């Protein structure tokens, strides 16, 4: 078996603008698997790229690694008014994923940003961190080892660190859809319903999620596309297609729809992506190219089509 690439080799790929975007994105994920301070340093060197897609993915991965050593890098991205809003949004979400109390003050400062994507993401990240801190306190109080075991054994269906935990109450698809689409509720509550629908994984859950594509917030719409990609349910293809085909849709939503189609990776999904790999919006065209690479990987793998 060939040796997996070293951190230095991955950094060389990541920081090479002549390298195809798919390869550079792969390097980001390999660095995530390496983990640790060296990998975080290499990832931060990739942030000088002029690709919004790549920079936002680096911030996403830093959040997923949940390593506090990434905080200074993410803080700098969030504070940088010249940085693209999609990248700053991802940095704020990553601070929520890492979940430390020390991030609250900075997030509160940016929660009043004039840039909606950033303000909404910061509000959500604040609620997420407060929830995580409260949970930690609550768990410290549970000395009963049985109860603790039961909690630890609640298996997560997806390995991602989500912007909000799925709601645990036994709500129906309809109730969760109502919560998701109720704009008078907090983003945190609505996201909890969104992730609970994702975990249900049914056709009805897909249709419930799709209703939120009408939401006025691009942050909500992009997260819907993201969870559809995690679910890999072909039922969502017509909804994702509609998003990708809409040129007036926010680029961050179209990009997420493209990546979701790549994860679903049926012939129909691949056909849609082929049509947009030269899209005028660079984040969309790059996402289609990356998604086509992902689809290619899924179909080449021995477990293609199975979960």
TrEMBL record:
Region entry Disordered, spans: 144-174
SUPFAM superfamilies: ARM repeat (SSF48371)
EC nos: 1.14.99.29
Enzyme class per UniProt: oxidoreductase
Pathway: Protein modification; eIF5A hypusination
HEAT repeat windows: 70-110
Coiled coil start-end: none
Record's catalysed reaction(s): [eIF5A protein]-deoxyhypusine + AH2 + O2 = [eIF5A protein]-hypusine + A + H2O
Cofactor: Fe(2+)
Xref: InterPro entries: ARM-like (IPR011989), ARM-type_fold (IPR016024), Deoxyhypusine_hydroxylase (IPR027517), HEAT_type_2 (IPR021133), PBS_lyase_HEAT (IPR004155)
UniProtKB keywords: Hypusine biosynthesis, Iron, Metal-binding, Monooxygenase, Oxidoreductase, Repeat
UniProt xrefs under Gene3D superfamilies: Leucine-rich Repeat Variant
Compositional bias per record (Basic and acidic residues), positions renumbered to this chain: 144-159
Single annotated GO MF: deoxyhypusine monooxygenase activity
Function, as annotated: Catalyzes the hydroxylation of the N(6)-(4-aminobutyl)-L-lysine intermediate produced by deoxyhypusine synthase/DHPS on a critical lysine of the eukaryotic translation initiation factor 5A/eIF-5A. This is the second step of the post-translational modification of that lysine into an unusual amino acid residue named hypusine. Hypusination is unique to mature eIF-5A factor and is essential for its function.
Name of protein: deoxyhypusine monooxygenase
Organism lineage: Eukaryota, Sar, Rhizaria, Cercozoa, Chlorarachniophyceae
């Amino acid at each position: 078996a060939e040796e997996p690439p070293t951190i230095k080799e991955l950094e060389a790929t990541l920081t090479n603008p002549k390298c195809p975007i798919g390869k550079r994105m792969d390097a980001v994920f390999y660095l995530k698997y390496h983990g640790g301070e060296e990998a975080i340093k290499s990832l931060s060197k990739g942030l000088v790229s002029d690709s919004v897609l790549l920079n936002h993915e680096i911030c996403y991965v830093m959040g997923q690694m949940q390593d506090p050593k990434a905080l200074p890098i993410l803080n700098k991205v969030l504070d940088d008014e010249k940085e693209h809003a999609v990248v700053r949004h991802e940095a704020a979400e990553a601070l929520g994923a890492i979940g430390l109390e020390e991030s609250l003050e900075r997030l509160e400062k940016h929660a009043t940003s004039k840039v909606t994507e950033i303000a909404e993401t910061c509000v959500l990240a604040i609620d997420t961190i407060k929830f995580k801190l409260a949970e930690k306190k609550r768990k410290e109080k549970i000395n009963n080892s049985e109860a603790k075991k039961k909690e630890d054994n609640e298996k997560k269906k997806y390995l991602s660190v989500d912007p909000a935990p799925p709601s645990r109450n036994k709500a129906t698809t309809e109730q969760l859809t109502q919560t998701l689409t109720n704009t008078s509720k907090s983003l945190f509550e609505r996201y909890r319903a969104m992730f609970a629908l994702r975990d249900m994984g049914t056709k009805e859950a897909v249709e419930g999620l799709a209703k939120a594509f009408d939401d006025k917030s691009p942050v909500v719409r992009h997260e819907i596309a993201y969870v559809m990609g995690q679910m890999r349910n072909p039922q969502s293809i017509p909804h994702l297609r509609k998003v990708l085909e809409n040129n007036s849709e926010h680029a961050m939503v179209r990009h997420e729809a493209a990546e979701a189609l790549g994860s679903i990776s049926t012939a129909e999904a691949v056909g849609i992506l082929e049509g947009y790999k030269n899209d005028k919006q660079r984040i969309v065209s790059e996402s289609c190219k990356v998604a086509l690479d992902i689809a290619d990987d899924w179909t080449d793998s021995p477990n293609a089509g199975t979960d």
